[in-house]
Amino acid sequence: MLFSTSRHLFRGASRFFSSAPSSELSQVLRDRINGYVTADKVVVFMKGTQQEPMCGFSRNVKMVLDFHEVKFRDYNVLEDADLREGIKKFSEWPTIPQVYVNGEFVGGSDIIVSMHKEGEITDFFDEQGIPTKFSDKQ
After folding, report:
1. Which superfamily does CATH assign the domain made up of 27-128 to?
2. Spatial contact of 72 and 125, defined as CB atoms under 8 Å apart
3. What's this model's pTM, rounded to 2 decimal places?
4. Do β-strands 73-76 and 98-101 pair in parallel, antiparallel, or remain unpaired?
5. Among 70, 83, 88, 138, which one is least packed by beta carbons within 10 Å?
6. Contact 42, 73 (CB under 8 A)
7. What is the pLDDT along the chain (138 residues), one digit of tens a residue?
8. Distance CA 7, CA 58 (A)
9. How is the chain split into domains, by residue range?
10. Residue limits of the Glutaredoxin domain (predicted)?
């Protein structure tokens, strides 16, 4: 999958944007975030909630996942300043929202929207064992 390669390039580039090295993340917060990202198949750290996204980028991620009927667990970073800053260090990615699938960082709104527009998101979720509305195997 061509986009898979692009996603890894974005991931590597994130180190240049990171405001602080990941080593500055306390072990307690690192463990807490790791628990969040591994507790559910699809996790979104967002501004607001699924029911009430509080920024356009978070709303875009929610709309794409809803369109594909992908269930996800949300964490509202506006309610927790430690989580808001910690998730950026954890992923080495400077922006919110952040999407994790099967415990792995996928990217933010730009990546999710691009995967949707390029028609790659169903294949991606199928490869991850997460059926979508458009999956052959449901």
Report:
1. Glutaredoxin (3.40.30.10)
2. no
3. 0.84
4. unpaired
5. 138
6. yes
7. 444 434 443 444 443 343 444 458 999 999 999 999 999 999 999 999 999 999 999 999 999 999 999 999 999 999 999 999 999 999 999 999 999 999 999 999 999 999 999 999 999 999 999 999 999 865
8. 19
9. 27-128
10. 42-106
Q: With contact defined as beta carbons under 8 Å apart, do 38 and 101 qualify?
A: no
Q: Using the 8-state DSSP alphabet, how is residue 119 labeled?
A: T
The answer to whether 35 and 6 are in contact (CB under 8 A) is: no
As a whole number of angstroms, the distance between CA 48 and CA 9 comes to: 28
Enumerate the β-bridge partners of residue 104. 101
Tokens of 38: 């591994």
Tracing tokens 């240049």 back to the chain, one arrives at: 16
Q: Which two tokens stand for residue 112?
A: 């999710």
Query: d(Cα 67, Cα 88) in Å, to the nearest integer?
Result: 26
